[in-house]
Write a structure and sequence with these properties.
The structure holds 2 protein chains of 2 kinds. By secondary structure, chain A is mainly α. Chain A contains 40 helices and no strands. Chain B has 2 domains: 173 residues, NAD(P)-binding Rossmann-like Domain (Rossmann fold); 193 residues, Dihydrodipicolinate Reductase, domain 2 (2-Layer Sandwich). Chain B contains 13 helices and 15 strands. Chain B has a 9-stranded mixed sheet. A 6-stranded parallel sheet of chain B has the order 3-2-1-4-5-6, sandwiched between helices. In chain B, a hairpin with a 4-residue loop joins strand 14 and strand 15. Classes of the chains: A mainly alpha, B alpha/beta. At the A-B interface, helix 1, helix 4, helix 6, helix 8 and helix 10 of A face helix 1, helix 12 and helix 13 of B.
């Protein structure tokens, strides 16, 4: 078997070689067609050599490669590889070779040749292919029909149309499918009348429904405005597939012709279909469909009303707030949920103002909906309303207001919420406040300022709130937050250590690495040492770090990782970042009995991605073969060793 | 090497003969409108979307668990060439429904031929995504397919064309189009709050793939692992267990490389940010493991695997002349100016969570609206990734015509746009 060959040449090859990665091998990268041809003629060449040569000839081959490939066409073993090379060669010699082979071919080889002829759209092969439509082997009929469909001339259209009368259903299916392709290509070439005739023939033929649907679709769309009557028949068809087709095609027809039919359909069709028709009408008619949409948003069968509410959310405006608010407290929860969702996304800035106005004097159930909508819409116009609601006597209203404030909050509001968090003794209130604060901190405009304000609360906060504050600092990120959390990790308070090290373990930027290392080195939180080591490795694995720095982090982690689990994590980092240095480091670990397999796998995986000339590669593989017992890893290592003389 | 190792014609023949049962059958369960069914109530059997699975491995099972959480989904069958994977999925589905009803099949055609199945979840390896999606579309199924959706530019085009031709709903598993922090970042661009957009950055991986073959191992019995079917339209090579255990990534015949692996998510988001869902960049220049591309409107697309702020995998960054935003799978968002943070909701959903994306698909199956990651959109973003990988392979700058989907004046690049499929497969 040929050694590793990589598809890579030219400038890319130079760059990759310079980076110490795999070099391309002879056959896959040669620019010399004669070498490729010679490989195909060489009786000593392996199957793999020939396969690679054919794939390369597909890119480079010319007429001079055709004779040897032609000889392979009738060989079941290499016919496909020969076609792989021949198909893209832009020479009439290829068409001649394929035609000649078709006349002699049988079985699967014949099917493949037919396919290649179809891809090349060789009109000259039409008379050779046509008789195959009567072949007793249905696979031959299928391949022949498909090829004729792709060749797509008036002559092949005629041949296929006649074959549509075949008394074998699978043959008719294959021919009808080919006619769809043929008609499409003829239409694109300007032969619209012929294409229409073909589509009409297929849609009324005795063929599977999916094919008839396809022909019907093409027949309607190609006729444009003249296809409206045919389309309307499908809207009111008893057949669900044809109705579905009508809904899909409606989007491609003139709106003014389609909209009245859809409006009629909403009132006449059964509920489920009426609902689909309404949504389609709203999609394509937009504002023109609003009167119908508004009507059904207020009253109608459930599915239609839900569809109307969904549509109103897309095409409605501020004047629809009242309709949606009324529906949002409907006794039918599915209707109410749809309306609430609509209020969250109803387009237009004026909607926020309408919601604020509606909040004034609103009953509790509507006020809850409004608060939620203001929050979801990030409606700063609603801040005053939300702050007022926070002072409500009703705990449910207060909770809704806090949740909304989290989503709308400005930096100053965060401080207010933090103070409430520190003061509250209620677990449920704390949960609501934390949810709001997580949201607000993610959106903070000035992270450093907000972090400083939260840090200032940390010392005086009760123990129950400190972990929360540290978590919020983690959400904020930045220098102040990191310094504060690091300090907390050194605290003598075990709970604070626990919370701080957990936050460091989930930190969202690589600047946490030196902080964590410093804690490890100084043995600052011995109970959480393993957690910190894992957090340190996580940064090396997950974040943008220069390669040399990442390697250094791996070395450092290995120097303190006593358990095999953490050393395996380091190996994973090395495996993900292949380089000569990562190979060397992984190879050093192969002799360690408790991680031998993981180290062996890492070495082999890295080696598979490197140039064979990388210093130490061979020795690293030898180390794997010396120490590793895993059969699969050994087999991969042995395969790689074959690269070396 | 025997002939049987090189062809899958029996599979396709079986499909063709069995497909006779489909003739004339267009009846499907009645579907109801969007979220009318919601996630919070029981749904009548006749109103459920009946689903089957094709090639459900670890990622597919994550998708499947999300589908199962939707009460308007009824998952009834799975097809996989590996018996162990079939068993695991059946166990998972049966446990969910508290019955023994999930059917298991060796061939995907047995799922596609069932006319009670409305939609399929496809989560095979990349090599099968286009083929399985096209076969499903032709069988009249709606499709949720894991990414990457195609192996080549030609497959991307064939996929989009077939889905459009057959009028199917197709959602690629590029779920970040339905995840809040990414949408927030996109909206910042589209609202003009970052000023005039000039550069978009997509987190990609090492582009390399290998032409290597793993050592040959004895093929397992066909009913345990059907190697020929596993290979599908890809070139034949000898069996090795590592491939079928998920170790197929990185091999050129099975994998589109690291640009496509993450670019199918991140380049896709960049396309959206640049309002370029109907096109692709016109120029691609490799720079080490990175590729720098340029759109016709002058916006630069930088595909790179280093230099990110550490906001999680699959990060993207959008830069305008008045500010920038960067976000990733952690849900964290970094913005400049920082005042833009005050417009930001809190994002708690991981970028890998497909649940909202799957809900979008199910709603669209009912409303027949195009979902966020429809075939037309993902074809373009995949074409951009493939074009970038081609430039990287060639090691030179290439120019691309996104309308003709051709490289300009570069035959070698053009020849890399497609790969001949192994018989009997065709698209």
């Amino acid at each position: 078997m040929r050694a590793t060959t990589v598809l890579h040449f030219g400038l890319g090859l130079l760059l990759v070689c310079a980076a110490g990665l795999l070099e391309a091998q002879d056959l896959a990268t040669t620019q010399d067609v004669s070498q490729l041809v010679a490989a195909l003629k060489n009786p000593a060449a392996t199957d793999h050599d020939k396969a690679v040569a054919c794939e390369r000839l597909a890119v480079l081959g010319g007429e001079d490669a055709v004779p040897v490939l032609k000889e392979m066409l009738l060989d079941p073993k290499f016919s496909h590889y020969a076609r792989y090379a021949l198909e893209p060669i832009p020479s009439p010699a290829v068409d001649e070779a394929l035609r000649e082979a078709l006349a002699k071919a049988e079985g699967g080889v014949r099917l493949g040749i037919l396919n290649s002829i179809g891809n090349r759209r060789d009109k000259g092969a039409t008379s050779l292919i046509a008789p195959l439509l009567e072949n007793s082997d249905l696979a031959v009929v299928d391949a022949a029909a498909s090829a004729l469909g792709r060749i797509a001339t008036p002559e092949t259209a005629e041949i296929l149309s006649k074959a549509l009368k075949d008394d074998r259903p699978p043959a008719r299916s294959a021919v009808a499918d080919a006619l769809l392709t043929c008609a499409e290509r003829l239409n694109a070439a300007g032969q619209r009348d012929l294409a229409l005739r073909l589509w009409d023939t297929v849609r009324s033929a005795d063929v599977p429904g999916a094919i008839r649907v396809a022909a019907l679709q093409a027949a309607i769309i190609a006729r444009g405005a003249d296809g409206i009557d045919l389309w309307k028949e499908q809207v009111f068809s008893d057949n669900e597939k044809f109705f579905q087709l009508a809904m899909q095609v409606a989007r491609k027809l003139p709106v003014n012709s389609v909209l009245p039919v859809l409006t009629e359909a909403v009132t006449k069709l059964p509920e489920t279909r009426a609902a689909v028709a309404l949504e389609v009408a709203a999609d394509i008619g937009s504002k023109q469909a609003l009167p119908t949409v508004r009507q059904f948003a207020q009253q109608g069968p459930r599915a239609v009303r839900q569809a109307a509410l969904r549509s109103l959310a897309k095409i409605g405006d501020a004047s629809d707030v009242a309709i949606l608010l009324a529906a949002s407290v409907d006794t039918d929860e599915q209707i109410a949920a749809e309306a609430r969702e609509a209020l969250e996304i109803l387009p237009g800035k004026e909607v926020n103002q309408s919601l604020v106005q509606a909040a004034s004097g609103a009953a509790k159930d509507k006020l809850l909906v409004i608060l939620n909508a203001l929050g979801q819409r990030r409606a700063s116009e609603g801040l005053k309303t939300i702050r007022e609601a926070m002072r409500s006597d009703d705990s449910e209203v207060r909770a809704a207001a806090v949740a909304a404030l989290g989503k709308v909050a400005r930096d100053d509001d965060i401080v207010t919420l933090v103070k409430e968090l520190v003061q509250t003794e209620s677990e449920s209130e704390r949960a609501v406040l934390m949810e709001a604060l997580r949201t607000a901190c993610q959106r903070a405009g000035d992270r450093e300022k907000v972090a400083a304000l939260i840090a200032a609360q940390l010392q005086s906060a009760p123990a129950s709130a400190r972990a929360n504050l540290l978590e919020l600092l983690g959400v904020l990120g930045g220098k102040t937050a990191l310094a504060t959390v690091a300090e907390a990790a050194k605290s003598s308070d075990a709970d604070l250590q626990d919370a701080a090290t957990a936050v460091l373990g989930n930190w969202l930027s690589a600047d946490v690495a030196p902080v964590i290392w410093s804690l490890i080195e100084s043995n600052a939180a011995p109970r959480y040492r393993v957690r910190l080591i894992r957090a340190y490795i996580r940064v090396a694995r997950q974040f943008r770090v220069p390669d040399q720095e990442r390697l250094e982090m791996c070395r450092k982690a290995l120097s303190v990782a006593e358990r095999p689990d953490e050393r395996r994590l380091v190996l994973d980092v090395l495996r993900r970042n292949p380089s000569p240095e990562s190979l060397a480091l992984a190879a050093e670990l192969v002799a360690q009995s408790d991680i031998q397999e993981a180290a062996g796998d890492a070495v082999v995986t890295i080696a598979e991605k490197l140039n064979r000339n990388v210093p130490g590669l061979k020795e690293a593989l030898q180390t794997v073969l010396q120490h590793c017992r895993n059969a699969q890893i050994r087999a991969r290592a042995e395969a790689l060793m074959k690269r070396f003389p | 090497m025997s002939k049987s190792k090189h062809t899958s014609q029996l599979n396709r023949r079986e499909f063709l003969s069995r497909s006779a049962v489909l003739v004339g059958s267009v009846g499907v369960p009645l579907l109801v409108s969007g979220r009318a069914l919601g996630l919070n109530g029981s749904v009548a059997a006749s109103e459920r979307i009946v689903m089957g699975g094709i090639g459900i491995g670890p990622r597919g099972r994550t998708d499947l668990s999300c589908f199962l959480r939707n009460p308007d989904v009824h998952f009834v069958a799975v097809a996989d060439p590996q018996s162990e994977r079939r068993r695991i999925v059946k166990e998972m589905v049966d446990k969910h429904y508290q019955n023994n009803d999930c059917q298991t099949y060796h061939y995907l055609f047995d799922v596609l031929n069932r006319d009670d199945i409305d939609a399929v979840l496809i989560a095979t390896g990349d090599r099968w995504h286009t083929m399985a999606s096209i076969l499903a579309a032709k069988a009249g199924k709606d499709i949720y397919c894991e990414k990457p959706c195609s192996m080549t530019i030609a497959e991307s085009r064939a996929l989009a064309d077939t889905i459009r031709r057959y009028g199917r709903i197709y959602q690629a598993g590029t779920q970040r189009r339905n995840i809040g922090n990414f949408i927030f970042a996109i909206n910042l661009v589209h609202s003009g709050k970052l000023g005039k957009l000039h550069t978009v950055h997509a987190n990609t991986l090492d582009p390399r793939t290998t032409r290597d073959w793993l050592p040959a191992e004895p093929e397992p019995p066909k009913d345990v692992c059907d190697w020929d079917l596993w290979l599908g339209p890809c070139p034949w090579r000898p069996f090795n267990q590592r491939y079928v255990n998920g170790g197929w990534r990185g091999f050129f015949d099975f994998h589109g490389g690291g640009i496509l692996e993450w670019g199918s998510h991140t380049v896709d988001l960049c396309q959206w940010a640049n309002q370029a869902d109907d096109t692709a960049p016109i120029e691609y220049e490799p720079q080490g493991n990175h590729v720098h591309a340029t759109y016709a409107n002058g916006v630069k697309l930088i595909m790179r695997d280093t230099g990110w702020l550490g906001l999680g995998t699959c990060s993207v960054r959008f830069e305008g002349d008045e500010g920038w935003v960067e976000t990733g799978d952690s849900g964290q968002v970094a913005v400049f100016p920082e005042s833009l943070r005050s417009e930001m909701p809190v994002f708690t959903m991981a970028g890998t969570d497909p649940s909202t994306h799957i809900r979008d698909f199910l709603d669209c199956v009912k409303s027949r609206k195009q979902p966020a990651s429809n075939a037309s959109v993902v074809a373009q973003s995949h074409i951009a990734c493939h074009a970038a990988y081609i430039a990287w392979q060639l090691g030179r700058k290439v120019r691309f015509d996104p309308v003709k989907e051709e490289f300009i004046g570069d035959e070698e690049a053009n020849r890399l746009r497609s790969r001949a499929l192994r018989e009997p497969w065709h698209i």
